[in-house]
């Protein structure tokens, strides 16, 4: 049986790194892409432990660079088939909307949204010609649920979700499946190395400073319950092994399905009250 080939963006760390290893263990030929190829040594070392390092190929790819995307497209001609694309590359920008610059909003969308579109456009001609393929877009619960202080990230994931719905309806007739993974809170470095908070929102002079402190306190309190990112890698491997996806969305993580269900079920006014109570934010003192 011919090995299936899977492309992963942002494979140098987090979900991407773990997924590259998991797919290699499942017998996939993995094209692991990353902005800086010096980071590939981490994957190689981990794959040697499982004796699957020969399953991996590495390509330099900056999803925000048109030149890099063009080079990536040329490299794809060296592979006999492209069966799976996992749009995983992402960064997280935060800060309160009044204080986040337009430059920061645009940078957020360049990676999380436009980057996914650019890579998908490079891969789709191959999948259409084959009349088969699978595209997994790594979104977040933030793609369905808003959160103050994270509007750049949340907006980019909402946009990714809407685009993914359209994409699935467009390419399904060509035998191409599209799926969205919606993780909750997991132990990855997107909220450490990858998070960028607008400078103004971190200053004590900010009108939102006390609000930001309440949010950070809540996030820190919940870190002990963050999930194991290996769960995401296993879910992706399971999806890649299935013949067809009946569902579009795959929420995963502690409390994620309940949160999504409640948001659909209860009126916004009640949702808002629950949210403020959880954060212990006193609107009258702000």
Helix content: 40-55%
Give the CA-based shape.
globular
Content-based structural category: alpha/beta
**Backbone CA Rg:** 20 Å
Strand content: 15-25%
Please write the string of helix (H) and strand (E) elements: EHEHEHEEHEHEEHHEHH
Per CATH, the class reads: Alpha Beta
CATH superfamily name?
A: NAD(P)-binding Rossmann-like Domain
Q: Looking across the biggest beta sheet, what order are the strands in?
A: 3-2-1-4-6-7-9
Low-confidence stretches: 189-193
Structurally, how many domains make up the residues? 1
Averaged pLDDT:
88
The tally of helices reads 9
User: What is the architecture at the second tier of CATH?
Assistant: 3-Layer(aba) Sandwich
| Sheet with the most strands, sense and barrel status | 7 strands, parallel
Number of strands: 9
According to CATH, the fold-level topology is Rossmann fold
Instruction: Report how far the terminal alpha carbons are from each other.
Output: 63 Å
Jot down its keywords.
Rossmann fold; alpha/beta; 15% strand; 9 helices; 46% helix; 7-stranded parallel β-sheet
């Amino acid at each position: 049986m011919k090995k299936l080939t899977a492309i992963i963006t942002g494979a140098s760390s987090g979900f991407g790194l773990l997924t590259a290893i998991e797919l290699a263990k499942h017998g996939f030929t993995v094209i692991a892409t990353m902005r800086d190829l010096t980071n590939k040594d981490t994957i190689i070392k981990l794959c040697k432990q499982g004796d699957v390092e020969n399953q991996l190929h590495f390509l330099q790819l900056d999803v925000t660079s048109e030149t890099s995307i063009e080079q990536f497209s040329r490299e794809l001609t060296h592979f006999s088939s492209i069966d799976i694309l996992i749009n995983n590359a992402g960064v997280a920008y935060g800060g309160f909307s009044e204080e986040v610059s337009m430059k920061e909003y645009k940078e957020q969308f360049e990676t999380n949204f436009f980057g996914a579109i650019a890579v998908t456009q490079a891969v789709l001609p191959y999948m259409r010609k084959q009349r088969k393929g699978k595209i997994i877009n790594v979104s977040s619960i933030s793609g369905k649920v808003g959160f103050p202080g994270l509007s750049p990230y949340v907006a980019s994931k909402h946009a990714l979700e809407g685009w993914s719905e359209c994409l699935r309806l467009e390419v399904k007739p060509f035998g191409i499946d599209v799926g969205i993974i919606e993780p909750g809170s997991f132990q990855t470095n997107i909220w450490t190395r990858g998070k960028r908070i607008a400078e103004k929102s971190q200053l004590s002079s900010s009108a939102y400073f006390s609000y930001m402190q309440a949010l950070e306190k809540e996030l820190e309190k919940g870190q002990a319950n963050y999930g194991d990112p290996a769960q995401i890698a296993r879910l992706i491997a399971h999806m890649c092994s299935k013949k067809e996806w009946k569902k579009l969305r795959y929420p995963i993580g502690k409390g994620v399905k309940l949160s999504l269900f409640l948001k659909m079920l209860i009126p916004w006014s009640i949702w808002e009250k629950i949210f403020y109570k959880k954060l212990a934010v006193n609107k009258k003192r702000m």
